[in-house]
UniProtKB/TrEMBL annotation:
This is Beta-xylosidase. The keyword Mitochondrion does not apply. One of its GO terms (molecular function) is hydrolase activity, hydrolyzing O-glycosyl compounds. InterPro entries: Glyco_hydro_43, Glyco_hydro_beta-prop_sf, Glycosyl_Hydrlase_43_Enz.
Amino acid sequence: MKFILSWALIILVVVRISAQEKKELFFADPTIYVDGDTYYLTGTGGQKDQPLGFSILESKDLKTWSQPASTSGSVHMLLTKGDHVYGERGFWAPQLFRNNDTYFFTYTANEQTVLAKSNSLLGPYRQKKVAPIDGSEKNIDSFIFKDDNGKFYLYHVRFNNGNFLWVAEFDLKKGKIKPETLTKCFNQTEEWEATPNFESAPIMEGPTVIKLKNKYYLFYSANHFKNIDYAVGYAIADSPYGPWIKQENSPIIHRSIVGENGSGHGDFFEGLNGQLYYVYHVHFGQDQVSPRRTRIVPVAKEWDAANNVYKFKVKEDKVIVPIMEQK
C-alpha cells in the first residue's frame, strides 16, 4: 500500500509540474511596456501556434498574464509577417516605445533591424515603405534611446568575427541612422563575457540604455545564448557614444545569482509601484535551451557617491515566474 501511495504522490507532483510549465510564459528576448495601470509583454516566440511575428499579453501585477481584453481571437498579434512589414524569418528582440501620439515597434527580421509604427499601442504595426533600418550590412537587436535633448540613438549589434554593440544617431522621422555617427561601443574584455561552457566568437548583444543624473547606463548580455553562462552586465558613460566604463560588479544577472541557466537579453522598466525591474529569459532547463522561459526580477540601484554613479543589483530572492491566466 505504501508503495502504491508513493507512486501516486510522484505522479501527482509530475502532473502539477507539467501544469505549471504549461502556464509559464515562453517569450525570449522579452520587453515590457507600461501604459496607464497595465503592463504589456512581448518578445521572441511567445505563444503556441501564433503566426510569424510578435504577440502580446497584458497584466496588472506582473505575475498573471492574459490576452488583451480587445482580442477577438486566441492570440493578439502586434505585427505579423507579410502585413506591410519587413521580414520573412527570424523575428527577434522587439522594443515598444511611444513618441508624441505615435507608437513605434523596433525588431529584428532576416538579420536586419526594422522599425514599424501604429496609432495604437496594440497595433497592428506597419510600414509605409517596407524596408529595414540599414540594409548596408547585417545588424540585429535594436534598442532606440531618446535623450533629454530630443535626439534618438539606435543601439544594435553588428557582425565582425563576432557580435559587437554599436550606436548611431537615429532619425526617427526617416527611420534611418546617420551613418557618419556610427560608433562601436566596446570589445570583449572581461572574463565573464567569454566562458568556456559554450565555445563561440565574441558575443555582446541585447542592449538597453537608461540615463540617470547625466550618466548613460548600457546594459547588455554576453556569451552565446546557448551558453549556461549567458549573463547581463553594464557599462557607464558621459555620452551616448561612450567611452564606456564596464562595471566591476558585472554580471548582475547570471545563473550563480538568479539560479537558472542562460539568464539574459531583456529590458528595464519601471513598475507601477516605482520599483525598477528587468525582464529576461532563461534556458528551458538544465540540459535544454529552448523554448526559453520568461522571468522578471526587481532591481535595486544604490548611489555610489565616491564615483558619482549608480550601482545596480538584482533582488535575486524575488524573481517572478510569470504565468498565463487560466480561463
